[in-house]
User: What shape does this take?
Amino acid sequence: MSDNKSLKVKKFKKIITNESVLSEFKNSLKENSGAFISSLIEIYSHDTFLQQCNPSDVITESLKAATLKLPVNKNLGFSWIIPRKEKGVLKPVFQIGYKGYIQLALRTGMYKIINAGGVPKSFIIKRDLLRGTYEFIKPVNYDGKDDELEQYQGYFAHIELVTGFSKTLYVTTEDMNVHARRYAAGINSSYSPWVTNYSSMAKKTILTKLLKVYGILSTEMATALANEPQDEIIDIDNDNTDENSKQFTPNKPKSPNSPKKKDDQKPSDAEYEEVSFDVD
Assistant: This one.
């Protein structure tokens, strides 16, 4: 570890182990605060771009995760802290993944089923316009390769409440691409999550829209959804495109040997943005 990096990590540890800061984490996490703080120190120690952010700001964003009792770990997919450039300066931003929203929804005790995923290209889709339901039919000879390579014709989100109410939303990959490339800032960056982590972003986009419109929201869910970046909300009925939108080519099928993105790669100006759709 370089001297400069070591000093930054040491400063972060000093701030986060301050009594007043520790008490805030303990208020939210009780006996689990120690493990949570240890994981934050580990993440900060290995993320060279997060180290370029103000350590106090990193801790402030971490407290948001603690309040929601969501682990901060990209690999788990519940939530993470992303360094984003604002006027050339890196600032940490707390983001919730689609798995995090599923977790928050389940805690309400009102959801019997909640799910989001991709629909393989070889599946047949049937829609009941009157009831607003979908049926995704798997071919008899389906071999699973579409799932393995994330070759999806579209993405769905589905909820069933304990009251018996159910709702499914579905958006084609084509529509998702059109609106993502038009409205998500930094979409043409090679580091944009819409390029590096397309499926997770698509699932989050369709799931959050379903929850906002049809879900039963707890106070913490409503707050989390309200704090999502407002400049990423788009209108699916707007079919206009521009020249910049043509540059974006997301959802490229995976190669089985494709390398995974490293945590310390250069962040984009707008990491982990979602786009939203108006629904019927």
